[in-house]
Amino acid sequence: MNTITHTKSRVAAISIVASGSMAAIKFAVGIAIGSLALISEALHSSIDLVATVITWLVVRVSDRPADDAHHYGHGKIESLSALGVIAMLYVLAGGILVEAYGRLREGVVPPTFSAFAFVVLAIDIGVNLWRAHALHRAATDTKSQALAADALHFASDVMGSFAVIVGLTLSAFGFQWGDSAAAIGVAVMISILGLRLGRATVQTLLDRAPEGVSEKARLAISAVPGVVGIERLRVRMVGPTHFIDADVEVPRTYPIDRVDEIKRRAQAAVTLALEDADLSFTAIPVARDNESVRERIMVIARNSGLAVHHVTVHDLGGKLTVSIDLEVDGEMPLLEAHDIAHQLERHIYEEFGPDVEVDTHIEPLEPELPHGADATPARAAEIHNALTGLATDGVIYDIHSVRVRDTDAGEIVNFHCRASPSLSVIAVHEHVDEIERRLRRAFPSVKRVISHAEPPNAAD
Does the predicted model carry a pTM greater than 0.70? Predict the structure, then answer.
């Protein structure tokens, strides 16, 4: 049993003992002195006892986790129990009103004055004040509708006890109608409190969003970096948990792992704002106004499941030209590969208009796990010396971490080098690219060269 369930069960169990004791005493005294008001209050407390027993049983079920049959947990059983208690309260209020009206019409003898009745009522007020406070605090901490209902019952008991005191006092001073009027007052207070509790309970059962929760959830999610907007947001309350369904707009250029990070941050944000929240996050990819042409083309390729690189875009006097390297299976027939390229170009025309000029270079996709092994130390040293000899322009220097692998497709060379930190990426790339081309000319068996340029004193 978790801490919340233990707290609710303990408070409910204490209330059972208190309710039973005070109801029995008030009922006995009411019968002894013939006070309808005191008997009505005792019956009210008896219903509170039944309600508390129900609450004690319900809270042991409501905090069970969701299962295959109850995807949103078992919290709404508290709302159902609250409705049952409200129904009993209204039945009691109706019975009291009928009996009080009969006594007023028939002129029944007023109750016998007894100081003991006032002592019992004073004790009852003290006990109920303590119980109402304890239950209200527990209901607030655990967001339990069942405990909140109990707290209202005991608060109504306090007001009912005051009404009985007034009625007994009026009867003691010779006003025969005082006791019946007090009983009517008890019935009216029961009805008012039942209406208040019933309205909140029905709203929960009808999945009405709690006041202000939608705004808090919307603000929390909107503040998460990467969220463009919220298309739709719905909130429902089940027990103490806020279940939130949100359709959230995110940039369509974001990769899946970045969208997943937005989801995690959104869940953390609504949990911080609402304490107990369960967020269902649906990502809606949208185009942003600041998307570049290259980003839009990459989205088109990704949506088609194609691997592209070296996307170059130029604006030639108002005419857009696009060049793309498209990777396909090297064993694929040219006719099939051409159809794929044509399909990609057609999607680009649809995005940018028929005036765009598109050139697609088809090349074989590198195998994902090519068979290979490290070259001999002598071969690695030969390639290392060659690279050092090619880096003679003074821009690229300190060739190191040279690795050579033999694969089925040819040799693959990896190396690190250093360059001035003030150089632009374009300038460094041009110099390194020239070294790579010269190395492949000198060693035709080299299939691919992969370089890593870094500033001086940088860690490898």
Answer: no
